Amino acid sequence: MTSTQGHHHAPADLAPEHPARISVSQLLPDVYKAMIRLDIAARKGLDPALVELVKIRASQLNRCAFCLDMHSKDALAAGESAERIVQLSAWEESQHFYTEKELAALALTEAVTVLTDGFVPDEVFAKAAKHFEETELAQLIAAITVINAWNRFGVTGRLAPGHYTPGDHKS
Q1: 161 in helix, strand or coil?
Q2: Separation of alpha carbons 130 and 134, rounded Å
Q3: What is the DSSP string of 3-43?
Q4: d(CA 85, CA 125)
């Protein structure tokens, strides 16, 4: 490797991209359109920056590469800092990067997403209820639920990340 190349890999060095297994959105356009409408309805009235943080965190937990690509790019395009996006995977150790309201939303996202750990703890719900008025809290729960549904389509279909450009799927 010459000094001009640094640590960047030439495209030939990259592993091959895997093809999608199935595209539910292409096969079932009515389901896709209904999901888009659900997504719009769920996040209505919520701070868009907060919604992107929630979508990125749920997508990290669910290991949805496609949604991570999309929502990280959307967050950056909307003015979110790379630092706050990078720190999301360790938000509990990086609390000083986020507001108390964002932390409450991230804790709720974690609890709702990882239901196999048990029920959503009362203290997590109570903290969210302290920072969000009731309708807004219902919107947050809906937004968390919707990104989890999107993640399940993406993970099951093995949708490949890297092709999304912000604005591609604006509804």
Answers
A1: coil
A2: 9
A3: TTTTTPPPGGGSPPPPPPS--HHHH-HHHHHHHHHHHHHHH
A4: 24
